[in-house]
Design a protein that fits this description.
Four copies of one chain form a homotetramer.
Chain A lengths: L3 E5 L14 H18 L7 H5 L1 E10 L10 E10 L4 E10 L5 E15 L4 E2 L4 H8 L4
Antiparallel strand pairs in A: 1-3, 2-5, 3-4, 4-5, 5-6
């Protein structure tokens, strides 16, 4: 129930010399979707800490089929797949819905994220308020 | 013997609002190092196919410590860690050498790469010439 | 009648360390708007040459007030302001409409563009078909 | 005497679908050169204000010939061409030296810059310390 969907319209400048959305830019797309989920659509209370200092600790991406320039935005589906004491995992799927109800999958990804005190660089534990926000996107 | 090192000087524009090289840009750094290894320092003969159509199929990155803006370039060490029939893996470590002979590691990564016929989008097998080029960077 | 409007949604990654859309990214926004006008909304016939090789010869931008991250897209208004024999000028205004009917202007810009034979790098004259396409956006 | 030169090595990711350094990226190159001049090579004393809040008010670029991917960095020459009460102008030329002593010019540009109190967004006057720093690059 918790899946969030972010619609991202590709830019011409996202294309590389192959005419595809460059593989690097995929990670930027995931970042935009995550910012939208955590900072915009999460309830205001309690999520401020998530907005102000969350570092990416690990990222993995599977590229299945190229994204091209098109008018229609790409749907990026994302959800919280794990909440630990001092880190959490966000999972992603970039996929179009097709007429027969199946999905045309472009790729999928996971990022491990750690709340961090940016002034000191020290990782910190997830607060109860933050946990409640993240739990809304848990799947 | 096969490890290649690419020196990458960070740009001010690589920084995000946290003052760190943005996590997305790490993947761009890996791409620059890979282009340098495969297209510039690989022998000219046989590597043209690698230059003209190699898609990233999977990427994984571990971020250990932030990269900041500095005058000294970051050394990106990379090598071919596996050669399959129709794909190969490049591994990376971003690390400074320290005075006592140890390494200060910023992060490490792997990318799985597949030679592709860009006109048709079809994957293709690695040729003998390409295999010879890749083998020089095998570790 | 000829003014074209492109709606551009800012990305988090467009922000620099000041929290503003970076001044470099403004030029990317103009490029996206231009691609939309010339390649997407121009009639298909005759505009192919414009899509395949138009170089930016000169750009000038006036920055009036910072663009920030927001949900609502920024309207980029653009039009062809001059058509010469071998070049044409596109003018831009980034502005919100306000309730009292006036505009809140973020900035304005001009780019001088030259159709070019990309294989040889040689500039070429604007064809009659291209001129007809451009004339639709003339103001 | 005051001209500063910044050597910028192009990245593969700077190229667009035409195989040229994209016109947008030129503005990024100028920004990198300016940061180097003002924040790195300017004397530490007095220049902190220039590092912490200088907005680009106007930019103009003339593109003469395309920059391509190459091993050799592009020399970006820059200097302060005017110092006003609350703004200053930096001029740029991207050019290779050639064997006969002439220059191969890729392009030239100007940016008008205004020190700004970022907390309030208000422009402010250039201090005496800042003026002394800028004067060292005046030509």
């Amino acid at each position: 129930m918790a899946r969030h969907t972010f619609l991202l319209k590709p830019r011409w400048s996202d294309l590389d010399a192959y005419g595809h959305v460059n593989n690097v830019t995929w990670l930027e797309y995931l970042q935009e979707a995550r910012v939208d989920m955590l900072f915009v659509h999460a309830p205001a209370e309690g999520s401020q800490g998530l907005a102000e200092g969350v570092l990416v600790v690990r990222a993995e991406i599977d590229y299945r089929r190229p994204m091209l320039l098109r008018q229609e935005p790409y749907p990026i589906h994302l959800w919280v797949s794990k909440i630990g004491g001092a880190s959490f995992t966000v999972s992603y799927q970039i996929a179009d819905d097709t007429h027969d109800g199946s999905s045309l999958v472009y790729g999928q990804a996971k990022t491990l994220l750690a709340p961090t005190d940016l002034a000191t660089g020290a990782p910190r534990r997830i607060t109860a308020d933050e946990r409640a926000v993240l739990a809304q996107f848990l799947e």
